[in-house]
Amino acid sequence: MHLDSTSFHYDGQATPVGEFGHIRIAQGYSRDHRPELNQVILNLICENQSGIPVYMKPASGNNNDMEGFKQIVKAHIGSLKAAQASRYLVADAALYVKETIEELDAQGQLFITRVPQTLREAKALVAQAPTLLFTPISQGYEGVSYDSEYGGVKQTWLLIRSEQAYKREQHNLNKRMLKAGEQARKSFKQLSQQRFACVQDAQSAIVKWRSKQTVCDVNARAIEVAVYANAGRPKRGELPTRIEYQITGELCTPLISRQTALQQLGLFIIATNDVSDDLDMASLLSSYKAQQNVEKGFRFLKSPDFLTSAIYLKKPERIEALLMVMTSCLMVYASLEHQIRKTLKDKACYFPDQKKKPSQTPTARWVFQCFENITVLYQAEHIPLVMNLKERQHIIINCLGDVYRRIYS
Q1: Host H or E run for residue 145
Q2: pLDDT digits over 45-74, tens only?
Q3: Would you state the torsion angle of the CA atoms of residues 91, 94, 99, 101, taken in this order, to the nearest 10 degrees?
Q4: DSSP letters spanning 63-89
């Protein structure tokens, strides 16, 4: 089973919690990059073969995924595990919370999830990456196993280096370093305008500034600044009333900082509490990558063809009902797509894709588009005639069986 969530933005006013505990329409983290709009959240659990939804739960727009996933695990995973006989629950890093993985382990539910790299143990493992011996897993991926007991649960962590992610993150690293360098320049300029009573205070300020930098360093020193009693240019022979100290120096980006950052690019950690020998690195990675089945369903629900990327209903209970109808539509869509693909492979048949090349994995959306021009001609005292049927439609009709053949005969 694969657990994930998405948001639908709402072009209306925020609402309080309903009388019967309905969801609340509010602002929150927007997956649509529209933080100024209110929204609602949809949590979905889908099976792994074709992305058919087996569980849905609407949530308020400001719902936190970590808390939401935790409640789903406590309330429903046990019954879903009994009904579906699923082996693994797969989710993104929002599932990897101490209380949640403890609950999963207590229920005997195996999980596969991504580890947040904000954890101290994860940071330490990523920092050791240059010294570890990685093993090739598949094309573009290599990994190394690591034993962990985070949250008191025995786990296997798989540190993975992705070639594609490395190339993508390298461009982002350049942008981050430029931004960090500009911020360091501004903060050091403010620091150099301050004055200190002694050299020790100035040196302490330099040490404190250095501790906050992730990219830049400075060759800094404290210089004496004479302070006179009166403002303006001092008179000849006038002695200063006191000596203060100011910081000056030259900023730089050490090459070792960039090299260390480059060595940590393209790395991510997958965790599982299946510590048996049945799950190798390749199977663990492929199981986690199958998470895109849920994301594929979200893309269907939010596509312009479905016309529900934005919600215009006002009452929270109606929005909840709409999300249930949308999930039912996704169930039909995913089931039909799975049936078409399975039968095409079983019968060794092919359906032309958008580029007119033979394919055994067409999307249901493309199949629907190919059936749009079919019409039925009704004539008095004559049998209705189905028109505009072509060879490619007959391929799908034959795959789907006798019921569909009768409809289009």
Answers
A1: strand 141-148
A2: 888 888 888 889 888 878 888 888 888 888
A3: 20
A4: --HHHHHHHHHHHHHHHHHHHH--SEE
User: In angstroms, how far apart are the furthest CA atoms of the chain?
Assistant: 122
Q: Are the C-beta atoms of residues 70 and 337 closer than 8 Å to each other?
A: no
d(CA 309, CA 42): 12
The residues that bridge with 169 in the sheet, in sequence order, are none
Residue 374's nearest CA partner among 356, 393, 391, 355 is 393
**247, 191 contact by CB (below 8 A):** yes
Residues 74-100 pLDDT 10s: 888 888 887 877 888 999 999 999 999
φ/ψ (deg, to 5) at 335: -65, -45
What span, in angstroms and rounded, lies between the C-alpha atoms of 194 and 303? 55
The three-class DSSP label of residue 160 is strand
Q: How far is CA 223 from the centre of its chain?
A: 50
- Helical (H) or strand (E) element with 274: none
